C-alpha cells in the first residue's frame, strides 16, 4: 500500500513537472496550430524532418516565379515552420512577388520579414545561408536588409534611376 | 486528502488553469503571461485562502511528511499561485480604463475580505461572486460595447460613446471562443479551490457559527510515514 502511494506521488510529481515545462514551452513559442506544437516538440528532440518531395515541388514553383504555389508547397513541406531553410525560401518568395520596379508591395514585404524573422529565431545563432546559385541573396541577413529597405520610406524612393535596378 | 488528489489531480487542474488562463483567440491565438499586478493579487489571494482556512499549507508542506510528499505539496502551492494569477489575468480586461479599475476593485475586495476574515464557505462564495461578476462585465458587457457596429445608428452611437469615453473603455474584439474558454477556466479554478486541503473549522463561541477559527487539522497518519 505504501509502495503504491509512493509510486503515485513520484508519478504525479513527474507528470506535473513535465506538464509545467510543456506549458512554459507553449508560452515561449506561442504555436498557432497543433501541427506547430507537434513539429516544435519534434524539433526539440531533434527528430523533425521536412517533407523532401513537397520541398522540391516548392523549389520548382519558386524558380518558375509561381510564388503562391511555391509557398503552398513549402508550407506543406514544413507545416510546423521549424526548418530555417524552407522558411527562408518562403520569405524570399514574398520578396520576389512583392518586388516592383516602381514600387514594392508593402503587405508582401511585411509578411516576408515576419517569416524571415521567425526563421532566424529558430536557426542556430540566427544564421541562415542557402547555397543556391539562382538566388541573388543567399543569406538571411541580406534578405532581411532588402525587405527592411523596401518597407522604409525615404528620399531614395523618389530616385528615378530606381527603375533600372534588378530584382535579386 | 488522498495521494492521488494531492499528487495528480490538484497539480494538473491548477496547471490547466495556468495554461488556459492566458489563452486569447482573435485573428491569431496567443498565450498571455500574467501581468505583474496579477502576481501581486495572487499572493494576496493565497494569504486570504490560508487566513480563511480554505487552504492549509501545513497539510501539504511539513517537516514530518516524507520528502516526496513535500515535493508534491510544493508543486500544488506553486501551481495554485500560478493558477490564481492566471484567474485574475483572464478575468481582467485587456486594456484601458476598465483594466485599471478592475485591478483596483480586485485589490480592494481582497483586502476587505482579508480584514473581514470570513469562514471557508463564505470566502469561497465571495470568490465566486468576484470572478463571476468580473467575467460578466468583461466578456458580456465590455465585449458588447466593443463589437463592431452593424447599422448606421449603432455606428453613430458607438462613435458618440467612444468620443465621450475618449476610447478608453472599448476593448480589442476577441473571438467568442475566448469567452467560453475563460468560463471553463474560472469554473475549473474555483473547483480546484474547493478541492484544496482545508483547515478544520472549530466553533469557539455563539450558536450561529459566527465566531469560527480556522485550525490546521492534524496530519493524517498516512502522511506521517514514509511511503
Give a quick precis of the structure.
By secondary structure, chain A is an all-alpha fold. Chain A has seven helices and no strands.
Characteristics:
A: 168 residues, mainly alpha, Serine Threonine Protein Phosphatase 5, Tetratricopeptide repeat, B: mainly alpha, two-stranded antiparallel ribbon, two-stranded antiparallel sheet
Structure description:
- The complex is a heterodimer of chains A (168) and B (227).
- Chain A has a domain at 50-164: Tetratricopeptide repeat domain (Serine Threonine Protein Phosphatase 5, Tetratricopeptide repeat, Alpha Horseshoe).
- Chain A has seven helices and no strands.
- Chain A has helices at 2-29, 34-44, 52-63, 67-77, 84-98, 106-122, 140-151.
- Chain B has helices spanning 3-20, 36-51, 67-91, 96-116, 120-146, 152-164, 176-195, 221-224; strands at residues 23-25, 29-31, 200-203, 212-215.
- Chain B is mostly helical and 227 residues long.
- In chain B, 63% of the residues lie in helices and 6% in strands.
- The two termini of chain B are 15 Å apart.
- Chain B is built from eight helices and four strands, in the order αββααααααββα.
- At the A-B interface, helix 1 of A face helix 1, strand 2 and helix 3 of B.
Distance between the termini of chain A: 71 Å
Q: What distance separates the N and C termini of chain B?
A: 15 Å
Radius of gyration of chain A: 21 Å
CATH class of the domain at 50-164 in chain A, named Mainly Alpha
Number of strands of chain A: 0
Low-confidence stretches of chain B: 202-215
Rg of chain B, alpha carbons: 20 Å
Number of helices of chain B: 8
Shape estimate of chain A: elongated
Percent of residues in helices of chain B comes to 55-70%
General shape of chain B: elongated
Portion in beta strands of chain A: under 5%
Amino acid at each position: 500500500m505504501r509502495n503504491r502511494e509512493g509510486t503515485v506521488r513520484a508519478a504525479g510529481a513527474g507528470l506535473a513537472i513535465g506538464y509545467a515545462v510543456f506549458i512554459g514551452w507553449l508560452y515561449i513559442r506561442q504555436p498557432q496550430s497543433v501541427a506547430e506544437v507537434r513539429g516544435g516538440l519534434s524539433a526539440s528532440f531533434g527528430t523533425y524532418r521536412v517533407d523532401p518531395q513537397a520541398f522540391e515541388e516548392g523549389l520548382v514553383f519558386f524558380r518558375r516565379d509561381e510564388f503562391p504555389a511555391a509557398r503552398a508547397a513549402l508550407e506543406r513541406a514544413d507545416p510546423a515552420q521549424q526548418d530555417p531553410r524552407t522558411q527562408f525560401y518562403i520569405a524570399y518568395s514574398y520578396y520576389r512577388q512583392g518586388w516592383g520596379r516602381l514600387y514594392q508591395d508593402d503587405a508582401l514585404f511585411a509578411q516576408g520579414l515576419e517569416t524571415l524573422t521567425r526563421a532566424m529565431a529558430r536557426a542556430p545563432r540566427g544564421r541562415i545561408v542557402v547555397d543556391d546559385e539562382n538566388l541573388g541573396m543567399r543569406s538571411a541577413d541580406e534578405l532581411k536588409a532588402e525587405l527592411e529597405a523596401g518597407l522604409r520610406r525615404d528620399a531614395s524612393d523618389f530616385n528615378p534611376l530606381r527603375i533600372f535596378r534588378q530584382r535579386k | 486528502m488522498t495521494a492521488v488528489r494531492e499528487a495528480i489531480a490538484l497539480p494538473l487542474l491548477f496547471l490547466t488553469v495556468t495554461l488556459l488562463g492566458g489563452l486569447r483567440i482573435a485573428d491569431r491565438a496567443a498565450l498571455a503571461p500574467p501581468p505583474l499586478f496579477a502576481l501581486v493579487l495572487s499572493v494576496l489571494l493565497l494569504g486570504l485562502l490560508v487566513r480563511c482556512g480554505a487552504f492549509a499549507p501545513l497539510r501539504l508542506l511539513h517537516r514530518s511528511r516524507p520528502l516526496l510528499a513535500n515535493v508534491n505539496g510544493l508543486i500544488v502551492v506553486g501551481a495554485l499561485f500560478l493558477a490564481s494569477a492566471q484567474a485574475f489575468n483572464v478575468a481582467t480586461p485587456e486594456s484601458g480604463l476598465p483594466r485599471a479599475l478592475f485591478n483596483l476593485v480586485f485589490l480592494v475586495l481582497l483586502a476587505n475580505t482579508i480584514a473581514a476574515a470570513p469562514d471557508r464557505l463564505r470566502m469561497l462564495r465571495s470568490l465566486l461572486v468576484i470572478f463571476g461578476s468580473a467575467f460578466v462585465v468583461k466578456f458580456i458587457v465590455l465585449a458588447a460595447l466593443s463589437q463592431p457596429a452593424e447599422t448606421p445608428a449603432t455606428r453613430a452611437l458607438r462613435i458618440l460613446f467612444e468620443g465621450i469615453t475618449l476610447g478608453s473603455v472599448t476593448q480589442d474584439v476577441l473571438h467568442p471562443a475566448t469567452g467560453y474558454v475563460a468560463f471553463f477556466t474560472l469554473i475549473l479554478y474555483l473547483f480546484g479551490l474547493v478541492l484544496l486541503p482545508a483547515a478544520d473549522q472549530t466553533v469557539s463561541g455563539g450558536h450561529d457559527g459566527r465566531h469560527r477559527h480556522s485550525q490546521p487539522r492534524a496530519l493524517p497518519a498516512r502522511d506521517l510515514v514514509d511511503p
